[in-house]
Specification:
Elements lengths: L2 H12 L7 H6 L7 H7 L6 H4 L10 E4 L7 E4 L2 E2 L1 H5 L4 H4 L3 E6 L8 E4 H17 L8 E3 L6 H11 L4 E3 L6 H10 L4 E5 L1 E4 L2 E4 L1 H8 L7 E5 L17 E2 H7 L10 E2 L3 E7 L7 E6 L1 H13 L8 E4 L6 H13 L3 E5 L10 H9 L3 E4 L1 H10 L2 H4 L8 E5 L5 H11 L6 E4 L33 E4 L11 E6 L14 H8 L20 E5 L5 E6 L3 E4 L2 E4 H9 L4 E11 L3 E10 L7 H14 L8 E4 L13 H8 L14 H10 L3
Parallel strand pairs: 4-17, 6-7, 6-8, 7-14, 8-11, 11-12, 16-17, 16-18, 18-19, 19-20, 28-29
Antiparallel strand pairs: 1-2, 3-13, 4-5, 9-10, 14-15, 21-22, 22-23, 23-24, 25-26, 27-28
Helix pairs in contact: 7-8, 7-11, 9-10, 12-13, 15-17, 19-20, 21-22
The structure holds adenosine-5'-monophosphate-propyl ester.
Adenosine-5'-monophosphate-propyl ester binds next to helix 13, strand 20, strand 24 and strand 26.
Length: 663
């Protein structure tokens, strides 16, 4: 390192506030600091601007109907179609421009570009095909697909005919697929034969079929041929399943009028982990969600139609829904999709893609940034990343060191970074700086977006002083919010509202949304999110319920009881640690350990794989029998133990500690 570099590193390490670069501010979609006051004074009408980003068949009557909290309705009686907003309206001006630039994992395979015209055509053909195989308005269609273009095609085809989609992350297991299809009563599945991971074709249809065998009702399945002859080795026989390519060919040239949907009609369902074993079906609507995804894409990601915008998330999670598909396409920009991992064939794959496509924004997760940092700056340094104008992060807190590394080595100190806090349930971003307006503070997401009313409170609901830890709450509704949990209004209230609301009141001021995150706020109103306060673990920016993992482990033969906690992990943020009591007659050995890991992979997927499985004769429990997870977290983190005096069995803690340490 030269002396100049060392000085630069030292300055960066100390700097706590970064101003947005002048060159960025000059061209930013939003650069007027007055927006905060304006939105506050003009709430909820301030959201008319978000709705104006969309084309409506019929205008709405009311911006917000808050007469029956927490069942808020936005843009009431407005009529629109999400697929028409993402496609049809761009055809005149941008028909020949790229809508999707898709990069497959194999380097020797040709990338695929879909112009708006081409995407529109295939969406229409597949929409016609879906209708033909029986999909009607409001039927839930499950999409179990990796990062291939047919996934957004299928999403938009569903939206076109008013059939809500439920995308299940391709890395989830067969069981997870079955659980979600059963919960949504979904009779249709679109999947594929396989995809590539680190150079090898991976069998996906086998997993989908296994999942289908656990679905309790009749199903109709469509299969995309992703692998061509490379998939022949899996020996799949489509049987009565439909081939995607045949269906689309049979409907060549078809045109399907977009179905006129009410603003409050469901656009999609997305299952996410909660504190019970059962995933929650988060319901998002056509008007409010699409307006939210579009407005935040424009004002936070600074998306313009001529951009080539790159979000490296997977469409199987909410980030990909809002910020690969709906937000960017509604704004008529070019959105990128990459099928593979960032380290295949080498650790510079993302930088190669950014350089080749001259990507203008990069939106990724802190986990990825920590991995890039560990691999070393020689990988990004070998590429010209000067096309980048803005960087973003999402999914978990980012530590200041990783933030600064990202700022320097990827952004060349010329790109603002937006650290965006939000959730599956919020539909889109809630807390982050506006890149053309606010200073950035590494490690802190920033102030709430204009019009978003976030407060940090104590257990009694009173606001905490600056610098103190408290709970993040949202005091006013917002257009992108979930409307309910599918078929379960009661659980919706219980999970998100019960903590801080007056449940008997019909005054919206008495209703407060609780996202189950801890946070603190500083004197400038900047919010640092501290992490979940419920039993949900955040592994690599992905949410996993400890209960879900525990029930998978208890399902393994030989296991009597299990407790799962999240422990610190340098790259993943958090990792899964499992403490297991065996049944009488079973040995605590590697064979059982392997079966436990396999059990978790079968029930959920490799992402939930425990980092460590520790056998123990007992778990630390309070006198009332509750497992003291905090102590297990101390053990996982190798920290000093918290108070053990309230335990029924204090001696067990040191015993577990010894075992976790490898004795
Ligand atoms: O704990 C927060 C964390 O991720 C949770 C939401 O997870 P999920 O619904 O899977 O959505 C992830 C993508 C939006 C939150 O409750 N989280 C998300 N973004 C941040 C974050 N924690 C800290 N900083 C963030 N920027």
């Amino acid at each position: 390192m030269t002396e100049g570099d060392a000085e630069l590193e030292a300055r960066l390490a100390e700097q706590e506030v970064f101003e947005p670069p002048e060159s960025f501010v000059e061209q930013a979609n939003v650069s007027d600091p007055g927006i905060y006051e304006e939105f506050e004074e003009n709430w909820p009408e301030c959201w008319e601007g978000a709705a104006d980003l969309l084309d409506w068949y019929e205008g709405y009557d009311q911006v917000l109907d808050d007469s029956d909290p927490p069942f808020y309705e936005w843009f009431t009686d407005g009529k629109l179609n999400a697929s028409a907003n993402c496609l049809d309206r761009h055809l005149d001006e941008r028909g020949d421009e790229a809508a999707i630039e898709w990069v497959g994992e194999p380097v020797d395979e040709a990338d695929r570009t879909y112009t708006y015209e081409e995407l529109h055509r295939e969406v229409n053909e597949f929409a016609a095909a879906l209708r033909d195989i029986g999909v009607g308005e409001d039927d839930v269609v499950t999409l179990y697909m990796p990062m291939i273009p047919e996934l957004p095609v299928a999403m938009l085809a569903c939206a076109r005919i008013g059939a809500p989609h439920s995308v299940v992350f391709a890395g989830f297991s067969a069981d997870a697929l079955a659980t979600r299809m059963n919960a949504a009563d979904s009779e249709y599945l679109v999947t594929c034969d396989g995809y590539y991971r680190r150079g090898d074709p991976l069998d996906h249809l086998g997993k989908a079929e296994e999942g289908l065998s656990g679905v309790e009702h009749e199903t109709t399945t469509v299969v995309v041929d992703r692998l061509g002859p490379n998939g022949d080795g899996f020996g799949h026989d489509l049987g009565d399943k439909h081939d995607y390519g045949d269906l689309v060919a049979a409907h060549a040239g078809a045109e399907v009028d977009p179905v006129v949907r009410d603003a409050e009609d469901m656009l999609f369902l997305m299952y996410t982990s909660g504190t019970t074993g059962k995933p929650k079906g988060v319901k998002h609507t056509t008007g409010g969600y699409l307006a939210w995804a579009s407005w935040t894409s424009q004002s936070v990601l600074d998306i313009k139609p001529e951009d080539t915008y790159f979000c490296s998330a997977d469409i199987g999670w909410i980030t990909g829904h809002s910020y690969i598909v709906y937000g960017p396409l509604a704004l008529g920009t070019t959105t990128m999709m990459y099928e593979g991992t960032p380290d295949h064939p080498d650790r510079d794959r993302l930088w190669e893609i950014v350089e080749e496509y001259e990507a203008t924004q990069l939106y990724t997760a802190p986990t990825a940034i920590r991995a890039f940092m560990k691999w070393g700056s020689e990988y990004p340094d070998a590429h010209d990343l000067s096309s980048l104008r803005l960087l973003g992060t999402v999914g978990e807190p980012i530590n200041p060191r990783a933030w600064k590394w990202y700022y320097k080595h990827i952004g060349g100190e010329e790109c603002p970074i937006v650290d965006t806090w939000w959730q599956t349930e919020t539909g889109g971003m809630m807390v982050t700086t506006l890149p053309g307006v606010g200073d950035m503070k590494p490690g802190s997401a920033g102030p709430p977006l204009p019009g978003v009313d976030v407060r940090i409170v104590d257990t009694g609901g009173d606001e905490v002083e600056a610098g103190r830890a408290g709970y993040l709450t949202v005091d006013k509704p917002w257009p992108g919010m979930l409307r309910t949990l599918y078929n379960n209004d009661e659980r919706y209230i219980e999970e998100y509202w019960a903590e801080y609301s007056d449940l008997d009141s019909d005054d919206p001021d008495d209703w407060v949304y609780f996202p189950e995150d801890g946070a603190k706020i500083d004197e400038d109103g900047y919010i640092t999110v501290l992490g979940r306060v419920d039993d949900v673990i955040n592994v690599s920016g992905h949410r996993l319920g400890t209960m879900e993992i525990e029930s998978a482990i208890v399902g393994v033969e030989g296991v009597a009881e299990a407790a799962v906690v999240g422990g610190h992990h340098d790259i993943k943020g958090e990792a899964v640690y499992a403490y297991v009591i065996t049944e009488e007659g079973y040995e605590e050995n590697d064979e059982l350990r392997e079966r436990i890991v396999a059990g978790v992979e079968d029930a959920i997927g490799p992402i939930a794989r425990p980092e460590q499985v520790v056998f123990t004769p007992d778990l630390p429990k309070t006198r009332s029998g509750k497992i003291m997870r905090r102590l297990l977290e101390n053990i996982a983190d190798g920290e000093e133990l918290g108070n053990t005096s309230t335990l029924r069995n204090p001696e067990i803690v040191e015993d577990i500690q010894r075992k976790a340490g490898g004795d």
